[in-house]
Design brief:
Layout lengths: L8 H25 L4 H29 L5 H30 L3 H9 L1 H52 L1 H19 L1 H20 L5 E3 H19 L3 E7 L1 H4 L2 E3 L4 H12 L6 E10 L2 E9 L12 H14 L5 E6 L2 E9 L3
Parallel strand pairs: 2-4
Antiparallel strand pairs: 1-3, 4-5, 5-7, 6-7
Helix pairs in contact: 1-2, 2-3, 2-5, 3-5, 5-11, 6-7, 7-8, 8-10, 10-11
Length: 348
Amino acid sequence: MLNPITSNSKYTINYALVWSLIIGAHFAVLHWYYGLSVGISSADSLLFNVFFAFLGISLWNLVRYGKSNQNFVNLFISHIVSSLLIIGFWLISGYLILRYAISDVHYLSFLDSSFPWRIISGIFYYSLFILVYYVVVYYQDIQSKIKQEANLKTLIKEVELKALKNQINPHFLFNSLNSVSSLTITSPQKAQEMIIKLSEYLRYSLSNEEQQITTLKTELDNIKLYLEIEKIRFGDRLSFQFNCDDKSLKSSIPAMILQPLFENAIKHGVYESVETIHIKLDCEVNDQTLKISLQNDFDKDAKQTKGEGIGLKNTRERLFLIYKKNDLLMIDKLENLFTVSIKIPQND
């Protein structure tokens, strides 16, 4: 850590101004209260105060290298010894210089009689410097720990986001491979078409593996690949519609955030129905928020597929990790209509 006084020009200037005020006050007391001449008052105030101003800067090293000593008694003793050495050196040096430089009898008498209060002022200066330096050291330590903690939280957040994101692809891949397995028997041509679509989808996913934020348009292009894969299997039983204007398509959105929602719509809608299931996506930007509504109908009389709701849970957790809000995903189930609503804050 650098000396807080000399590491910043602004602090150095303020430090010099403070000592200028102290020198001025010292001069005023000597000249107008004790009646010393201008020259003698100036020499006394400048020598003692400028000398300690430079000594005070060097005290930083004492605090900086001594802070690792956690034993209070040893720390206290080290400051007692250092204060005696520094204050003693300051007083004796200043005393000898002025005594040999000034021959005025009245001043020399004053110099001898002022020794006790100079000791007191030296102790005050030393204590003030040490106190300020310790405050600076502990403040810097706290700021360093806060920065480290923030970096650690960011790292943990990135790891958690990546873990949640990576849970999506294996889940979809498992379902797709099962579909391909079925189609190889019933419709080899559709199986081949599905494998080609699947390779395009995986190529896209791998190329965007490290990207956390993308545009809605990019996300929907990926979703269309997914739906085309599923439509090969389900045919007319799957119908989808996107209603998104240009402003919405340019909005920012976490990559792969919609994938589990569409998986959920197909799993709990198309899987259990013999009728056409309609999936509808509506998007709009309002009050710096991208609002997404995904609806799908389902056969309310059909036996619903049981699951752990991993897709919706992952989506909710990812939204919370990114935006620190718990109300960004809402679920509504009425009659034969299932709706998932998402709000994505926009920073623009």
